[in-house]
Amino acid sequence: xxxxxxxxxxxxxRSVTNAVQDLGAAPRILDSPAGIDEQTHLxxxxxxxxxxxxxxxxxxGLAAPIREWIAADRPFFGICVGYxxxxxxxxxxxxxxxxxxxxxxxxxxxxxxxxxxxxxWNSATPRxxxxxxxxxxxxxxxxYFVHSYFPAPDDDAIVAMDTDYAGTRFxxxxxxxxxxxxQFHPEKSQRAGxxxxxxxxxxxxxx
Length: 207
Hints:
Distance between the termini: 8 Å
Number of strands: 13
Number of helices: 5
CATH class: Alpha Beta
CATH topology: Rossmann fold
Largest sheet: 8 strands, mixed
Low-confidence stretches: none
């Protein structure tokens, strides 16, 4: 297993790197397309704004290789902004298109008196508890969230986990083939997060 972590200048690289190293992986940090094809698994972490992150992926020549990787159904894990960027657009950055892997928009939580960002521990309920990616997580695992925006996929079939925040139910994870993406941060989610990362790294891949 060869694990690559995408570096676009805004990702939470240190925490993600430390988490997968705790699981025995030796990740390669990728800030350009060079070396991507040598990997079996790819993680796109995320901390930052939708528009700035997308523009930096384009500037570094990483957007097209990421789209090609996903189209080939190779193991991919998008985290937080790395999840949001998979969609067509985001309210945070009007006029800046995302990767467009999935149809849908990244929306802001309603300004109705709730605390924004949604920050802290919350549950994520798997729609298919028997999925191997949720092995050893239990029926309603808790993960750590920090976000003001959330994807609203057009295709409900890709939604893999649901979370409720102050009455707004949103897709906290999506799943298609060997792709997994989560709004929460597994690298900050202690045992549950490490379990999910371990399950992802066990997905069969190829270089």
